[in-house]
C-alpha cells in the first residue's frame, strides 16, 4: 500500500473514531459486561463469584420466568398484527391533502408523545371495572362489568389494547411516508387497467408498501417483546403473574430481589430471542422478495 | 367514420382556466400530435380524454359512443405514460396482462396477446424480468406493449420520447412510426418537440393559451401558419418576424418596407392587408447570405452556427432588428462581418396587427 493510501486510511479512521469510541463504550462494552455478569452470582454491591451456567439452568427451571416469557409472546402476538393493520388502515384513510386529514393525523399521532405513566393512567380510567368508562358503560347496558385488570384471561388483552392505542402514531407515519412514495401515475395506470379499488390495493398499493410493512412488523415485534411500563403500572404483572412480561420479571429480580447475575442471564435470553425473531422475519421476507413474486 | 370527437370541452383548475371551448375531430386510424409549450393545456386535454381529469363542460365521443362520464378503464383508450408508470413489483408479462385480467379476458387469449405484442416489440426475452432490471428504452417498449394488448380504439401517448437519450429517441421515433402502421386505432401523442410532431403525425394540433391555434398536416402548419404563435413555435430556428409597413403602389401584391428601409415584394395580395403595423415572417431558408451586389439589404453577423450541410447566420439589420439567414455548409462568414442578405419575398408570410397570417396565393 502506498504512503498516501495509508494516510487516507488513517484519516478515514479519524473521522469515524468519535462515533466508534462512543459505540464501543456505551454499547459493546456493556453488552459484553452483561454477558460476563450473567455467569456470576452478583448483587449491586459486589461482582460476586463465578457460577458458570448456573443462572441459565435456574432460569430453565423457573416457572415464573417461563410464564413471563410465554406472556411476552402472547402479548406481542396480540399487539403486532392488530397494530399493523390499524396503522395501515389509518394511513390509507388519512393519506390525502385535506385539512381534516392533517388534523386527524395529528390526533392519532398525539398518543405516541405521551409518557407511559399518562397512558396507563388514562387506560386505568377506561378499564377499571368499578368506576371506569367501560365499567360504567356495561352497567348502563345492564351487563356485568368485565374485570379487565384483575382477571387472569383479561389482563394481557388489556395490556395489548393500551399498547396499541399508545403505539399507533409511528407505524401510521411510516405507512404514510411509504404511501407518499408511490407515484400517482401508477394509480392512473391502474385506473386505465380497469383495476377495482380492491385490486388496486392488493396489486399496487400493498406491494409498494412491502418494505415499510416489513420494517413496521420488525420494529414493533422487537419493541413489544420488551413491553414493560404498561405491565408494571397497569397490573403490576398480576393477577398471579398473568400479565408479567419478561422485562418486568428482569426488573423484579434485579431491583426487587437484587439478584443482578440472575436478572442479567434472563436479559441475555430475551436479547437472543429478539435477535432470533428479527433475523427470522428478515430471512423469511427477503426469501419471498427474491423468488416468491417472481413468477 | 370519425374516431374521436371533442366538442366544446372546457376545463378550469379553481379559477384558472386551462382549456377554453375546444373542439376537434379525429379521422379513423389517424395519428394526431398535440403540440404546444409547457402549460399550454395539451397534457390536460389528453388526461381529459383518458378520464384521469374531468371536463367542466363539453362532450367526448369515441367511435360514436359518448365516453366522458365513463371511468378511464371503460373508455376503450390505452395510455403510455411519460414516466411509463409500470408496476415495479410485477414482471413484464404481469404488467402487460394486468389490464386484461381485470377485464376478465380468458387466460389463453391473454397469453396470445401478450406473446404477440412482445414479439412485435422485441421484448420476448424480458417477459419474466421486472421493470427495474430494464433500460429506459426497454421500459418504454413494455409501456407501449401494455397499451397494445388492450386493443384500444385510441392510443394516448404522453411525451413518449422525452425520457430517452438522443440516439434512442431517434430510433424509437422510427419504431413508433412503424408501429402505428400495425395497430388498428387512432393515436394521440402529446409533445412539445416539433420535430417529433412533424415526423410522426398525420395532423398536428397546435395548442397554446388554453385553445387550439391551428390544426393541419405538418407541412401545412409549417408553410401556412395560422398566426404569429404557430409561425414562431413551429420551425427551428424560429421564424424571423420583422416589423414592416406597406408601400403605396398599384401592384397586385403587397410591397413591404422594413425598418432599415429595404423593400420586399411579397406574393401576398395587397387587398388582403389592412394598413397599419404589419410583420414580415421569414423562414431562415428564405433569407440567403449573398454578395452585396445581389442583396436586398445588409446585416452584421452576430453568431454563426455550422450544421454541416448548411450554416445558420444570426445577424442584425442596420436598425438593430434580429434576422436569421442561411448560407452554404462551407460558408466563410464570420462574427462581426457585414454581409449581404437576399430576402425571398415570394415565400414570405405577412402578419397583421391582430396576429392573423397571410400567405402567398400559391404554395412556394
Task: Summarize the structure in words.
The complex is a heterodimer of chains A (about 300) and B (about 375). With about 300 residues, chain A is mainly alpha-helical. Chain A is built from 14 helices and two strands. The mean pLDDT of chain B is about 90. Chain B has helices at about 40-50, 90-100, 105-120, 135-150, 165-180, 195-200, 220-225, 230-235, and strands spanning about 1-15, 15-25, 30-35, 55-60, 65, 75-80, 155-160, 185-190, 205-210, 210-215, 240-245, 255-260, 265-270, 280, 285-290, 295-305, 310-315, 320-330, 340-345, 350, 355-360. In chain B, the strands form four sheets. A six-stranded mixed sheet of chain B has the order 6-7-8-3-9-10, with helices on both faces. Classes of the chains: A mainly alpha (about 300), B alpha+beta (about 375). At the A-B interface, helix 9 and helix 10 of A face strand 6 and helix 2 of B.
Indicate the topology.
The complex is a heterodimer of chains A (295) and B (364).
Chain A: H1 3-37, E1 40-43, E2 46-50, H2 54-61, H3 63-94, H4 99-110, H5 116-127, H6 133-140, H7 155-167, H8 169-180, H9 184-192, H10 197-208, H11 210-224, H12 229-235, H13 246-255, H14 260-292
Antiparallel strand pairs in A: 1-2
Chain B: E1 2-13, E2 16-27, E3 31-35, H1 42-50, E4 57-62, E5 65-66, E6 77-80, H2 92-102, H3 107-121, H4 136-148, E7 154-158, H5 166-182, E8 186-191, H6 194-200, E9 203-208, E10 211-216, H7 218-223, H8 228-233, E11 240-246, E12 253-258, E13 263-269, E14 278-282, E15 287-290, E16 297-306, E17 310-317, E18 322-328, E19 338-343, E20 349-351, E21 357-358
Parallel strand pairs in B: 3-8, 3-9, 6-7, 7-8
Antiparallel strand pairs in B: 1-2, 1-4, 4-5, 9-10, 11-12, 11-14, 12-13, 14-20, 15-19, 16-17, 16-19, 17-18, 20-21
Largest sheet of chain A: 2 strands, antiparallel
Shape of chain A: flat
SS summary, helix count of chain A: 14
Strand and helix order of chain A: HEEHHHHHHHHHHHHH
Which spans of chain A of ≥5 residues are poorly predicted at pLDDT below 50?
290-295
Radius of gyration of chain A: 24 Å
The strand line-up of the biggest sheet of chain A is 1-2
